[in-house]
């Protein structure tokens, strides 16, 4: 799978295209499933200004958006963070979530337990490795799903009422991470309605109603409802790569 994600931001004076390849490895591989490159152009004349590591930008901007959603939507006294998955996005989410929020306990589960153990041993603070997704999720206040699952691995009857879920995996219309019960009994937020209704199997196959885009909450036109059980379905937007790439380029230019 080869994705092409062009975007232009007048506010940031930035024009980019991200090229991302996705290969589903049937066996564990040293090569990441997702690899990406961001091309940054001069919007005034089309000149290529920079080639950036799109994998790093994707990991960090995705986790940053999840962190924004979590800040707005998580319960007032969130003590337990649960991460399902142990790949690149698990690391980037762990880094920013433990930097911005104070959790008393962090749990992780992964289909291949060895990867979860490796994750726990390589991060800076204690992480509890769980033997099942249900064990990891039970009682968690904030849940992050960053898996390669194509059928649900998170079920509504496991989830603590009032919890917040960031659903980052399952980016195809026939893939799922969350079951129907969770999707239909939660308040659903998305990054883009159009994208969610064409790309997200969790949204399309469950028939769940979208309550708001995250941008509407940030602008104050829709409420956050942190007292409810909330799901933020993250698919990623090209403009996020554009803003991030321009930020990196400007910082590099200033350093030079």
Automatic annotation (TrEMBL):
Chemical reaction(s) catalysed: L-pipecolate + NAD(+) = Delta(1)-piperideine-2-carboxylate + NADH + H(+); L-proline + NADP(+) = 1-pyrroline-2-carboxylate + NADPH + H(+); (3R)-1,4-thiomorpholine-3-carboxylate + NAD(+) = 3,4-dehydrothiomorpholine-3-carboxylate + NADH + 2 H(+); (S)-cystathionine ketimine + NADPH + 2 H(+) = (3R,5S)-2,3,5,6,7-pentahydro-1,4-thiazepine-3,5-dicarboxylate + NADP(+)
Entry GO CC: cytoplasm
Gene Ontology process terms (BP): thyroid hormone metabolic process
Enzyme class: oxidoreductase
Record family assignment: Belongs to the ornithine cyclodeaminase/mu-crystallin family.
Self-association and partners: Homodimer. Binds the thyroid hormone triiodothyronine (T3); T3 binding inhibits enzymatic activity.
PANTHER family, per the entry: KETIMINE REDUCTASE MU-CRYSTALLIN
Listed name of the protein: Ketimine reductase mu-crystallin
Source organism of this protein record: Drymodes brunneopygia
Organism ancestry: Eukaryota, Metazoa, Chordata, Craniata, Vertebrata
UniProt gene name: Crym
